[in-house]
């Protein structure tokens, strides 16, 4: 996937089919919009494309980011998008709806068709809606396709609902709305070494940056992508009260990969969350904590052995 960070003409010699949206989370609704553009491009011999944007300081529209930029790009590329434009919001925030259509859809994408959700807005101060988009694009010879919002539990899928599900430990709901397992790929950092030196369960530390959404604290059944394959694992997100019960203890994200041995510092492996197991609590002894970690890892191995997850 070719990624553009400025407003510039994309590689689309026969024109493009463009998905429009912010795509935070790349959830089921986003996948419908992106997939519709990709399928249209295949039918009509166009370049499959997407237009989104990046907010200043890694901000998000309505809360902490669900996916890192790398994860977002990986998932959108996996849907078949080839031309992807993600300029800073400041680069086009003052454009009128008319200028947005001309400068971005016509000049940059040579768009023949565009796809968006029924709540899409554009132009300075969100002055344009889907009806305005249809009118302006009609004058430029661009087809406009409004994609109905995806539904889950009789309600529209949204990033706000996904954030709430993750924060409340409803991982099954979050993953269903995302259309893929929730995952992180934060860089591996050094911890205090307690897992390896005192518990016999060395962990991979991938602590959340301040701008990221942090899921509910607890123990999760996870898997990590290492050496070109998935490894069953157990992940704890929380303050580790058994080893540090101070009120100022930092929240950590630590993963035990029982069958893997190697140095991952400085790397950013993908960690997928598949099942919420139990809350974090203080154990009487370190031996009790170590036993929980090993049980969780064994549960993870059994879980993935019984799954057809690829």
UniProtKB/TrEMBL annotation:
Enzyme class: transferase
Pathway: Cofactor biosynthesis; FMN biosynthesis; FMN from riboflavin (ATP route): step 1/1; Cofactor biosynthesis; FAD biosynthesis; FAD from FMN: step 1/1
GO molecular function, one term: ATP binding
Keyword Coiled coil attributed: no
Keywords assigned: ATP-binding, FAD, Flavoprotein, FMN, Kinase, Multifunctional enzyme, Nucleotide-binding, Nucleotidyltransferase, Transferase
InterPro entries: FAD_synthase, Riboflavin_kinase, Riboflavin_kinase_bac, Riboflavin_kinase_bac/euk, Riboflavin_kinase_dom_sf, Rossmann-like_a/b/a_fold
Catalytic activity: riboflavin + ATP = FMN + ADP + H(+); FMN + ATP + H(+) = FAD + diphosphate
EC code: 2.7.1.26, 2.7.7.2
GO biological process: FAD biosynthetic process; FMN biosynthetic process; riboflavin biosynthetic process
Record's keyword annotation contains ATP-binding: yes
Riboflavin kinase domain residues: 177-305
PANTHER family per the UniProt record, alphabetical: RIBOFLAVIN KINASE (PTHR22749:SF6), RIBOFLAVIN KINASE/FMN ADENYLYLTRANSFERASE (PTHR22749)
Family: Belongs to the ribF family.
Protein name, as recorded: Riboflavin biosynthesis protein
Organism: Candidatus Gemmiger avistercoris
